[in-house]
Amino acid sequence: MEEKKSGIKKFLEEFKAFAMRGNVLDMAVGVVIGGAFTAIVTALVEDIINPLIGLFFKADFSDVVIGLGGSSIKIGEFVNSIINFLIVAFVLFVVIKFVNSLHKKPEEPAAPEEPTTKVCPYCQSEISIKAVRCPHCTSKLEGFPEMKA
Q: What stretches pass through the bilayer (predicted)?
């Protein structure tokens, strides 16, 4: 009897540790917020966008039925579902694109460019970084090749 209690207790402790991990709680919050957001998007589509579309053409195809023998295929309901899906997907795309634009990270500043010039230590003129002799004062600079006789 004692082993069963410790096994159940261990199981409950493992479940508690699993349920309290960050990913599970984040996912649960996401599902709840997703449900609420679904209601908002559905209301937007059904109450605002569908009536606007209905101004331009008949948006309700639920009466379209194909009769085959004694049965009927409600193709119109299927077409309505596809249209509603496309509208909801488009609205969701626009909303997510808008929200993502609000959260854009500022661009990181570009890395400073490598210098292309340096200052001659003798005459203080600006010269090419690759120069080994100053074109202004003709001084030998670092990296000047020495002639060996």
A: 24-45, 78-99
Residue 3 pLDDT exceeds 60 = no
Q: What gap in Å lies between CA 69 and CA 56, rounded to an integer?
A: 35
Predicted structure pTM score: 0.44
**Torsion angles phi and psi, residue 122, rounded to 5:** -95, -50
Report phi then psi at 105, rounded to 5: -80, 140
User: What secondary structure does DSSP assign to the chain, as a single string?
Assistant: -HHHHHHHHHHHHHHHHHHHSHHHHHHHHHHHHHHHHHHHHHHHIIIIIHHHHHHHS----TT--EEETTEEE-HHHHHHHHHHHHHHHHHHHHHHHHHHHHTPPPPPPPPPPPP-EEE-TTT--EEETT-SB-TTT--B-TTPPPP--
Domains of the chain: 2-102 (1.10.1200), 110-143 (no CATH)
**pLDDT per residue as tens digits for the range 14-73:** 887 777 776 777 788 888 888 888 888 778 877 887 777 777 776 667 777 888 888 888
Question: What is the rounded distance in angstroms from the CA atom of residue 109 to the CA atom of residue 112?
Answer: 9
